[in-house]
Amino acid sequence: MAKQFNFTSLDSTTSTLTFYSPSGAAVQATNQFNERKLDYVLAQSPITVVFTANSGSSSSFFFNMTEKV
């Protein structure tokens, strides 16, 4: 479950942020990523998160998550 997040500084022209589910399905994040989309991705646990940025990119993001018990 997403608690705090900010994807507004994620620059898709200089970086990529991809979430992979256990089945291998990929979800590409954008600077428009919202809580509903993030919660959907995080519910596919365990996930793999891959962030790639070009040299000199100022792209950034953050999220905190809490595991449901």
What would your notes on this structure say?
This protein is mostly beta strands. The chain has one domain (2-53). The chain is 12% helix and 35% strand. The chain is built from one helix and five strands; from the N terminus they run E-E-E-H-E-E. It has one helix spanning 35-42; strands at residues 2-6, 15-20, 26-28, 48-53, 62-65. The chain has a three-stranded antiparallel beta sheet with strand order 3-2-4, with no helix packed on it. A hairpin with a 5-residue loop joins strand 2 and strand 3.
Structural class call reads mainly beta
Strand tally:
5
User: What is the chain-wise order of helices and strands?
Assistant: EEEHEE
Residue stretches low in confidence (pLDDT < 50, at least 5 long) are none
CA(first)-CA(last) distance: 11 Å
Radius of gyration: 12 Å
Largest sheet: 3 strands, antiparallel
Strand content: 25-35%
Q: Which sequence of strands runs across the widest sheet?
A: 3-2-4
**Residues in helix, %:** 10-25%
pLDDT average, as an integer? 89
